[in-house]
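INTERNAL AUDIT FORM
Audit reference: QA-55
Scope: verify that the stored structure record matches its stored sequence.
Auditor: D.O.
Record contents follow.
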Amino acid sequence: MFKKTLIAMMCSLSLVACGGGGSSSDGANNGSIAIPVSDLDKAKQLIETTKAVISYYDGFEAIGDQYKVPAETINATASDLNNATGLIVFLADLAYADAQGASKDYTAQQLEDLMDG
């Protein structure tokens, strides 16, 4: 919320500082008539610009919310993946020791028997 307020204030200051204010009315415009923008029009433009900037940053917030659940899910499964990897390495060590350098295939039951024995 603080970021949005700060952005809105910075946009307001920038638009007010660069907003102009019409032109002189002394007739030095080479005969063309310049109509100054009213303060109400400037305020409307400022409000619309501020809304656009805030909605732009709200879009980033929505992206973060969109990826929050998948990131939490991955984080929650990390320990399970670590345990499964440890189990696979353990079974591979058992099979390697049992095969004694020979090429041998194992079924799930044979691996279970190696763990028990």
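Auditor finding: record pair retrieved intact. Residues 39-99 form the longest helix (61 residues).
Action required: none
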